[in-house]
Amino acid sequence: MRHIIATVAASVLSVGAVSATEPGGRLISQEDFTNTAESTVNGVVSVKSFATPRGQRSISPFGGDDFFGGDDLFEYFFGMPRNRQQPRNRQQPRQETPKQAQRQIGLGSGVIISKDGYIVTNNHVIADAERLEVTLNDNRNYNAKVIGTDPTTDLALIQIDADDLHVIPMGNSENLKVGEWVLAVGNPFGFTSTVTSGIVSAKARNISTTTRGGSNGGIESYIQTDAAVNQGNSGGALVNLRGELVGINTAIYSSNGSYVGCSFAIPTSIVNKVVGDLKQFGAVQRAYMGITFMEVTPELVEEKKLEGANAGIYVASVADRSAAREAGLKEGDIIISIDGNPTLNTAQMQEAIAKLSPGATVDVKYIRGGKPYVKSMTLRNSRGDTTVTRAASLMDLGCAFTNVPKERLEQLEISGGVLVTGIEEGRVKDAGIRDGFIVLAVNGQRVTSPEDMEKIYNAVMKGNDDKVLYIKGVYPTGKQAFYAVSLED
C-alpha cells in the first residue's frame, strides 16, 4: 500500500475515558481535559492565505500580453519568436484592486505565543500567500504580516496588530514521555476551536526514513501522537494536560490523505530556537558540524565491521575547514550523543543540532575502533564561521526603489511603477540596469510600489525555483527594456 505524508492537523474526537493514569502515576480525570481545553482554545487562531489566481497576475503594464506569455520576452532573451502560427489576443488590464482579485488558497491554524500578536504556524500554511488573514477564537479578524519563515523546519512567524492576546505558555517537549496524554487544538476543515486527545506514541520520529521516501531536505524530528488530526490543523497546538505548548501540529501518515491514526508535531525544542531567531534576526542561525552521515543499521554494522555500537550516527565524510575536522572527528566514527542528548538515529541527531547556534560549544561522544571518546566542538554556520546570518533584503541588490513622481507617470503615460535610484556595485548594476529605470513588472507580476518589489523578492528567495528576477520596465526616454537579475550566491 502506498502511504501519503500529508501536511495537515486535527479532527473532532471526544475524550472517551473519565479517568486514566499518566506515566508518573498521577490519576488524571475528565476535569484535566476540560480545563486544558478551556485554557488553550483561545490561544489558537485560524490562518487563511490569499493570492491572485495565476491567470490574473500577469497583466502587462504596457497593455499587451502578460510578462511570460508575450513573444517579446522570448525574443529578447533567445533572439527568436516562440510561436508565430496564430495571432495572439491582446488582453486589456483589469481594473481590480489586489484584494478583489485574490482568492483563498489555503487554510490552517496558528498559535499565539505573545500578547502583542506574534503567532507561530507552519511555513506550508502561508507559502505563496499575498495576504494573510487571522481569525481569533472570538471571531475578530486581522491581516497578518510575515516576520520570517523557515522551510527547513516548516515553521513561520507572523504577527497581527493586536495586544493583550491569550497566550499558550511554552512547554518543554524534551520532558514529554511516551504514553503521556496530549491534546491537539486547531481548525480541521475550517471547524474552529476543535480539540482532540491522544497519547504521545513516539518521539524523535523521522517520517522520510520511516516511509523510505528519502529525505525532503528538511529537519525531521517529530513528536508522533494518535490524536486525531486532519486538513486545516497545520500550525495548530499540541499541548500537555498542564496546558503548555509542546509541539506544532504539522503532518499525518495516511494511505488516503485523511487521518488514520498517526499524526506528527514539531517539538518546542526546535520551535523555540527557530522562532527566536526569526524574531531577532529574520533568519535562522543554523549550526553545522560539517559531516555527511548515515544512520547505523544492522546492515551497516555488518558491512563496515563496526564495533562498540549497534545504533548511532556513522560519519561518512568530514568537510574541510569544518567544526568536525577541527575537533578531530574522522570517517568511520559513530556519534552517540551531543551534550548528553542521545543521537541514536537521524531524527535525534537533527533535533540535537537544530537547537543550537553557530558558536555553541558542545561535547560530542563517539565510538572509534570500538572505544568511546569525547571531544569538545565549536559549531559553525554554513559559511564555515560563526557570524550572524541576516535575512536577505532588497538592499542586497545594490540600489533603492522609490515611488515614481507623478509628472514622470504622466509623461510616460503609465499608471504605476517603481523608480530605481542610487545604484551601487551589486546585482542590479551587474545586470545592466541604470539609474532612472522604472520597473513595471517582475516575474509576471505588476509592480506599483516598493512594497510590491519587496513581496516579489521575498517570494523568490523563499521559493524552490530559480532565484532570478525577470524585470520589465521603461527608461525616461520611453525605451522599454528587459533584464534578468540573478539572486544566486
Strand proportion: 25-35%
Report the uncertain regions. 9-18, 57-97, 211-216
Mean pLDDT: 84
Strand order in the sheet with the most strands? 10-11-12-15-14-13
Q: Portion of residues in helices?
A: 10-25%
Structural class: alpha+beta
Shape: flat
Please count the helical segments: 13
How many beta-strand runs? 27
End-to-end C-alpha gap:
42 Å
Structure description:
With 489 residues, the chain is an alpha+beta fold. Helix content is 20%, strand content 32%. The chain contains 13 helices and 27 strands. The strands form five sheets. Strands 10-11-12-15-14-13 form a six-stranded antiparallel β-barrel. A six-stranded antiparallel β-barrel has the order 4-5-6-9-8-7.
